[in-house]
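Help wanted!
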Amino acid sequence: MKYPKDGRFGEFGGKYIPETLVPAIEELEENYLKFKNDRKFKTELDYYLKVYAGRPTPLYYAKNLSDKIGCGKIYLKREDLLHGGAHKINNTLGQAILAKRMNKKRIIAETGAGQHGVATAMACAALGMKAEVYMGYKDTIRQKLNVFRMNMLGCKVHPVKSGSKTLKDAINDAIRDWITNVESTYYLLGSAVGPHPYPVMVRDFQSVIGKEIKSQMKKINNKSPDSVIACVGGGSNAIGTFYPLVDTSAEIIGVEAAGQGLKSKYHSATLSAGSKGVLHGMMTYLLQDKEGQVTETHSISAGLDYPGVGPEHSYYKDTKRVKYHSATDVEVIDAFLMLTRTEGIIPALESAHAIAEAIKVAKKSKPSESIVVTLSGRGDKDVEEVQNYLSKNTQ
Amino acid sequence: MSRIKEKFAELEAKNEKALIAYIMAGFPNDKSTLAAVRGLIKGGVDIIELGFPFSDPLADGPVIQNASTVSLEKGTKIDSFFNLVEKIRKETSIPIILMTYTNILYGRGYDKFISDAKKVGIDGFILPDMSIEESKEYVEASKDKTDTVFLISPNTTKTRIRKIAKVSSGFLYLVAVFGTTGVKTEIKNYTLKAIKEVKGQTGGKIPVGVGFGVSTPDDVKKYVKAGADSVIVGSAYLKLIEKTSYDQIERKITSFTKRLKKPTRL
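Answered by r_m:
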């Protein structure tokens, strides 16, 4: 799907929005289309991606991990080395520069674990803009440090106390703010979700990941990777990884959070266990009950704790171009520890879902095969969570 | 002719404007909703909007959000809601509009949901997250069954107002303010201008109702004076229900409704 004019990926996507937002969404799409191929815009974005965020990121051959499994070669796309510690900055820089060109003085964003909030605060600070971030009240407690980080970066954090007090409610409140301040405000959405054109715009800004993988693997192997793996919450690092590779022969796998198991209530595996519905302006797979009420989710990684998923992923699921698997909290902790010990790389718990899948895929692979995993973020933020988990589960 | 259209025709003959009341079904329970409906009717309301709760009501302010949460916690389901409407229908033939979010209809299927709703006596729908671009299936499923009330905002362009009017029936819902439901502000000039604009673009072919932040008889008076065919009061009713004990709900709602209705009689 290059640029879906009606905002649809097959039957998914669209713009299910309150009327007040229609002019804002139209203005956004118009400006995005105008600037995405604009030479000056691209030069400025490339400049910030290179010297501010630290692109290109390396593609690291995880030899110790691969040897331990003893089959194919596992490569890590090191998005964890970016400024801020995650892939989020690819998108926030793109959208913040766009907002500046649109003369928007006020930026709002939502955040789950706080990674997108921090990346928004950083991009806005660098570009001299003011940001306000909505964050579920529960998440402000779970991720206190990220709240401080955002505050230090000059950003106001609004704790959201409605609904389940997590990411989905933060998005609701950000949309409510946008409806109220529609003229002055730019909504900087952090994942490949929401009404058109957000899913396609966020994908385009994150596609730098997949494009680099493609050219880096070409240099190493002179071909595309055999398998590509990324974790999926809303799905921005995954769609950025997958999109440039969907027209190759690579096997593509997205990994969702199975939490305490798909049969329990405690998971966030939208594509593996959800049904079609409409939330946050888009038609997509959702975790919901039979009545259409969106259900609460669980994951050990706050960043995957979302009951919806980007509509393009729903499309790739139904067309079977991408396989969507899941990893449980237990598998994720094992993968987290294995990567930490074999390679000295502490992955974000979100990214550890992709590592868990890579270990499974590698076991069934031939030594000649290459498996690329997007390591979407670093795990410093999760060390306490892992420590708590281990102390609870080893007693 | 639909009950909603008949109502507007009847009011026009009497030189009156319509008072529309919104209440959340099952807030704080079905019994109170029934009492509130009785109060509305005694007070002279013209059309009732019944809210069906959704987990993620992104066009609503704190009052309706809270009412949704309470209603869901009390166990409101689609079928229990339809039972409640059937009970109301035994007492009154007043037009009833269901206000909820797209996903609730989508889950059961537009066709099935709308047919089921029609059967129990629902006359129309308001879906604040249904844009006209995505509305084809919903509008087709509603045809000859229920009215489709779409929303218009003060920033909606002239061309778009005409497009929205084309797929709307019953009335057009003009959102008075930039914001969510229930936010109290003074009456804005841009709203008064928008009423004239919408009336002008639609040539009086479809009534225009003004809602969001309308809460007092004085608000009603000003919007009626500005040319609105109808005013919609929601959060103010929910606040009243919230602070009133069950045995007083009917009486309190009756007297509040009477005060709101008065300025609609020209």
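OP: Thanks! One thing I noticed: The interface with chain A takes residues 54-59, 61-62, 65, 69, 72, 77-78, 101-108, 128-131, 133-134, 150-153, 155-157, 160, 164, 175, 178-180, 183 of chain B (CB under 8 Å).
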